[in-house]
Specification:
This protein is of the alpha+beta class. It has 20 helices and 9 strands. Among the domains are: 137 residues, Orthogonal Bundle (Butyryl-Coa Dehydrogenase, subunit A, domain 1), CATH 1.10.540; 118 residues, Butyryl-CoA Dehydrogenase, subunit A, domain 2 (Beta Barrel); 131 residues, no CATH class. The strands form 2 sheets. Strands 3, 4, 5, 6, 7, 8 and 9 form a 7-stranded mixed β-sheet that branches.
C-alpha cells in the first residue's frame, strides 16, 4: 500500500518563488516578523507531523470506521490520540489571533496544513476542518460572553465545532429550515429540531463539541431572512449535558472514519450568535472560510492519488513503451508509456497550478483583512469573490475524476484495496457536494457575481490578471488570448442574459470551467517564468498546453450554442 508523503519542498517553492507570499505578507504589520525561513520551518514541521501521525491511520480508519452505539460515537483506533497530539502541539491555532490562544501566523500556513491533512487522512481531517470557520464566526459575531467562554477553546482546538444547517426536507435551500429557537427570560434560547449530514456531530475526540445551529425564532418571517444562528454546546460549564442527541450516523460511500450525524435538539439551551434574522450572514463567515479549505482538500486528495499512481508506474513493468529501444533499462516501465504519461502529467498540472491559485487566495484573505490601503483590501476581496467558487468547484471535481484517472494507471490493482487508491476516489466524491454543491458555486460565480453588474467587476479583475503577465515571455500571449476569449464570452452572456433570464443557469457550469482553465493557464504562466528546466516542471507545463487548454474551446462552443438559441 502506498502512503502519502507531504511534498513540502514543492509546496514551499510554489509559495515563496511563485506566489511570493513571504514578501507580500511581510508588508502587513501583523506579519512583519514572519519571513520565508519561518514559513518554511512551520511547513516542514507540519509535514512531518502529518506524515508520521496522521497518514498511517488512513487505511484503518476506512476499514473500522466510526462506531455509533446508544447515542455515542467511538472513533477508529488511533484517531483520538492523534487528535490530542494535534491540538496540544498547537496546529489548529496557527492562524488564530494571539489574544485568543493562537499563533497569529498567516492564513496560508493553516491552508497548507489542511491540504496535507486532507491528502493524508481525509476522514480524520473532517473533525478539525470546521474549527477555523467556527472561530471566525464567533470572533466576528459572538457576544463578549460567548467569546469569553468558547473562543479560546475553539481557537486552540481543545473543543471541536460543528455547522448544523441541513434538514431532511431542505438541502441547499436553507430558507426551508424548520428548527425552532424559543427565547427564555434569562436571555438564552431553547432550540428544537433535527439536522442531518452533520460532520463530527458526536465523537470522542474532544471533551466538548460546540454546535452552531441555524434556527427560526417564533415571530420570524419565512425564508432565509427568518433564520438566526445559535450556539449549543454538548456540555455546559457546570458539566451537565445538553439536549443535543446523535440519533445515528450515516452509512456512506467514503469517509468511513468521519461520523456524519443526524442531530436532534430537544429544547436544548443555547445562545444567539449575532443578530436575530441574520443567521446566514454569520454562518457564511464559516462557509466562505471553509470553501478555500475544501478546494485544498481536492488538491491534496489528487496529490495523494497521483503519488500512488506515480509510484506504481515506476515499479510496474509491461510491454516495451512505443518509441523506446529494447536496450533502454526502463523502456518497459508503464511510466514510459504515452497513455500513462499523459494521465500523470495532466493531473500534475492541475495539482501544481491549483496550489498557486489556492495559496494566492489564502494570501489575499490576509490582504483583505490586514492591509492598510483600502484599494488593496478591495482588490483582495474581489480576488476571493471570483476565485473561491472556481477553485472549490474545479479542484473537487478534479480530485474525483482525476483521482479516477490515477486509479486507471494501476489497472486492476487500482480497483482492489491493496494500493489504497480506491479509498481516495471514494473519499473525494463528497467534496463536490458539501459546502455548497459545485453547481451552486457555478451559479454564485456567474449569476450573483459576474452578471450582477453586467460583468464590470469581473472585467476589472481580468485586467489585473493580465497586468501580472510579462507579455515578453513567449508563452504569455497565448494566456492573454485565452483571457480575451473569456472576456468575449462574458460580454455575450451579459447581453443575452437580459433577454433570457434562464440562460446563465444552463451554462453556469461551463462558464466556471472556462474560468478555471484560464486561471490554471495563468498559474502555469507564473510557474513557467520561475521553474528550472527540469522534467518535473516542463512535463506538466506541456500537459497544460496540450491536454487541458484545448478544453477551453469546447466549453466556449457549448456556451455559444446556448447563446444561439436566445431570441434576438
Amino acid at each position: 500500500m502506498s502512503v502519502y508523503q507531504p511534498p513540502t519542498q514543492d509546496m514551499q517553492w510554489l509559495l515563496a518563488a511563485v506566489v511570493q507570499a513571504p514578501a507580500a505578507l511581510q508588508q502587513l504589520q501583523a506579519f512583519a516578523e514572519v519571513d520565508e525561513d519561518l514559513m518554511a520551518q512551520v511547513l516542514e514541521e507540519s509535514g512531518k507531523f502529518v506524515g508520521e501521525a496522521i497518514a498511517p491511520l488512513n487505511r484503518q480508519g476506512d476499514e473500522v470506521g466510526a462506531q455509533w452505539k446508544d447515542g455515542s460515537v467511538t472513533m477508529p483506533p488511533g484517531f483520538k490520540d492523534a487528535y490530542a497530539a494535534f491540538w496540544h502541539a498547537g496546529w489548529p491555532a496557527l492562524a488564530a489571533d494571539v489574544e485568543d490562544g493562537g499563533q497569529g501566523l498567516p492564513s496560508v500556513l493553516a491552508a497548507m496544513l489542511y491540504e496535507m491533512l486532507s491528502a493524508a487522512n481525509h476522514a480524520w481531517t473532517m473533525a478539525p476542518g470546521l474549527l477555523h470557520g467556527a472561530y471566525e464566526c464567533l470572533k466576528h459575531h459572538g457576544s463578549e460572553a460567548l467569546q469569553k467562554r468558547y473562543l479560546e477553546k475553539i481557537a486552540t482546538g481543545e473543543w471541536l465545532a460543528t455547522m448544523c444547517l441541513t434538514e431532511a426536507h431542505a438541502g441547499s435551500d436553507l430558507g426551508l429550515a424548520r428548527t425552532k429557537a424559543v427565547p427564555q427570560a434569562d436571555g438564552s434560547y431553547r432550540v428544537s429540531g433535527t439536522k442531518i449530514f452533520i460532520s463530527g456531530g458526536e465523537h470522542d475526540l474532544s471533551d466538548n463539541i460546540v454546535h452552531l445551529v441555524l434556527a427560526r425564532l417564533p415571530d420570524a418571517p419565512p425564508g432565509p431572512k427568518g433564520l438566526s444562528l445559535f450556539l449549543v454546546p454538548k456540555y455546559y460549564e457546570d458539566g451537565s449535558r445538553s439536549a443535543a442527541y446523535c440519533d445515528r450516523i450515516e452509512e456512506k460511500m467514503g469517509l468511513h472514519g468521519s461520523p456524519t450525524c443526524v442531530m436532534r435538539f430537544e429544547d436544548a439551551t443555547g445562545w444567539i450568535v449575532g443578530e436575530p434574522g441574520r443567521g446566514l450572514n454569520a454562518m457564511f463567515v464559516m462557509m466562505n472560510a471553509a470553501r478555500l479549505h475544501v478546494a485544498l482538500q481536492g488538491i491534496g486528495l489528487l496529490e495523494a492519488a497521483w503519488q500512488t499512481a506515480d509510484t506504481y508506474s515506476r515499479e510496474r513493468r509491461q510491454m516495451r513503451a512505443p518509441g523506446r529501444g529494447r536496450s533502454a533499462a526502463e523502456a518497459d516501465l508503464i511510466a514510459e508509456h504515452p497513455a500513462m504519461r499523459r494521465i500523470l502529467d495532466t493531473q500534475r498540472a492541475w495539482i501544481d497550478g491549483g496550489r498557486v491559485l489556492a495559496y494566492r487566495t489564502a494570501v489575499e484573505l490576509d490582504m483583505g483583512k490586514h492591509h492598510a490601503d483600502t484599494a488593496r483590501r478591495e482588490a483582495a476581496q474581489r480576488w476571493c469573490s471570483f476565485v473561491t467558487p472556481v477553485i472549490k468547484a474545479a479542484f473537487t471535481q478534479q480530485a474525483f475524476y482525476g483521482g479516477s484517472e490515477c486509479l486507471q494507471v494501476l489497472g486492476g490493482h487500482g480497483y482492489v484495496r491493496e494500493w489504497g487508491i480506491e479509498q481516495i476516489v471514494r473519499d473525494a466524491r463528497v467534496a463536490m457536494i458539501y459546502e455548497g454543491t459545485n453547481e451552486i458555486q457555478a451559479i454564485d460565480l456567474l449569476v450573483r457575481k459576474v452578471l450582477a453588474d453586467a460583468g464590470t467587476s469581473f472585467g476589472n479583475w481580468l485586467d489585473g490578471l493580465v497586468a501580472e503577465l510579462d507579455l515578453a515571455v513567449p508563452s504569455h500571449p497565448r494566456v492573454l488570448q485565452r483571457v480575451e476569449a473569456l472576456r468575449s464570452v462574458t460580454r455575450q452572456l451579459c447581453e443575452a442574459g437580459q433577454r433570457d433570464a434562464t440562460l446563465a443557469y444552463w451554462v453556469a457550469d461551463d462558464f466556471l470551467r472556462v474560468v478555471a482553465i484560464v486561471l490554471l493557464d495563468w498559474a502555469w504562466a507564473q510557474i513557467g517564468v520561475r521553474a528550472p528546466a527540469l522534467a518535473r516542471w516542463t512535463q506538466p507545463m506541456q500537459a497544460m498546453e496540450r491536454w487541458i487548454a484545448p478544453e477551453l474551446r469546447t466549453r466556449i462552443a457549448v456556451i455559444e450554442s446556448a447563446l444561439a438559441g436566445v431570441p434576438a
